Amino acid sequence: MENNTPNTVVLDAAKEKFELACKQAQSLQIVDNFGGAFVAAGVVRLLREAMTPEVMNQVFMPLMNTKVGFLTDRTGKIDKKTGRAREPYSMDIVRDCIIDAAALGLLPTGNQFNIIADRMYPTKEGYTYLLKKMGVKYIIEKSYPSMQAQYADIQCRVSYKYKDEVNSFTVKLNIKKDDYSSVEQIQGKAERKAKKALYEYITGTDLGEADEESAQVVDATYEDVTAKDAQSFDASQLKTEQDVKVALLRGHISKAEADALIEQMQQNKPQKEVDTKQPDELFPEDKQ
């Protein structure tokens, strides 16, 4: 009788190597890391040593096509459009995609990446995770999509703060859609592309897209807001604390001015409604 009980010793050793590789991969996210190639080689080596066929079968393959793990475009189920089923991805392809994801700093849990057309692509959750790890603060403002037959045109303005850099840029996107696509779905796809653009701009990388046509950035403009003339900005138009935080992030007002405005707003509120957040918290937690 075949014994399917996992080898605890093997799995523990694989876990240690996997965790070590993920920790080493964190240094790959540092901009201007000139020794990154040597680190990347070590990360890939550790991951391949850890992800043996036994470990893949016991740990990683069960995560495929689950929201707890990662989704793919090949589920083994019958496609309603084609009437055919596509076999799930092989162990070798899944291993390579997990290695690509881990080297980028992503985990094979929480739907941080998808496997599409044999390749790994970070999801909206994945880019959110990467930007948070890097300490990037950002606000994404999405326009209402303009619906076309097969595409929707939408703009996203990204304002961000990374270390001492405060800037913003706008991306104009056309999102592929069908007759059943909702505004929320289109805005969600646009948000992912905006986070992708922000991550790639800061790190200087290009991770590609699963659908290059629908993901193409039609036009991108860059606006340096770090040197804006504060005197030309009318602070009286700021009505809420969130407005103040956005203005601070964009460089329209100084931190001292933001503190004073927020303090004044809090004084004008009933006591039970006073916002206890610190002024340097530029925006609420990004909810996914």
How is this structure best described in words?
This protein has 288 residues and is of the alpha+beta class. 40% of the residues lie in helices and 17% in strands. α5 runs parallel beside α6. It is globular, with a radius of gyration of 23 Å. It starts with 7 loop residues before the first helix and ends in a 21-residue tail after the last helix. The model is unreliable at 212-230, 271-282 and 284-288 (pLDDT under 50).
Topology:
Blueprint lengths: L7 H18 L10 H15 L2 H8 L10 E2 L18 H14 L8 E4 L2 E4 L1 H11 L2 E6 L3 E2 L3 E12 L2 E12 L6 H21 L8 H4 L1 E7 L17 H10 L4 H13 L21
Parallel strand pairs: 1-2
Antiparallel strand pairs: 2-3, 4-6, 5-6, 6-7, 7-8
Helix pairs in contact: 1-2, 2-4, 5-6, 8-9
Structural class: alpha+beta
Largest sheet: 5 strands, antiparallel
Shape: globular
Order of helices and strands: HHHEHEEHEEEEHHEHH
Give the helix tally.
Answer: 9
Bin the strand percentage.
15-25%
Q: Spans with pLDDT under 50 lasting ≥5 residues?
A: 212-230, 271-282, 284-288
Q: How large is the radius of gyration?
A: 23 Å
Task: Note the main attributes of this structure.
about 290 residues, alpha+beta, five-stranded antiparallel sheet, three-stranded mixed sheet, 9 helices, about 15% strand, globular, disordered C terminus
Condensed summary:
By secondary structure, the protein is of the alpha+beta class. It contains 9 helices and 8 strands. Helix 1 packs antiparallel against helix 2 (36-50), helix 5 packs parallel to helix 6 and helix 8 (241-250) runs antiparallel to helix 9.
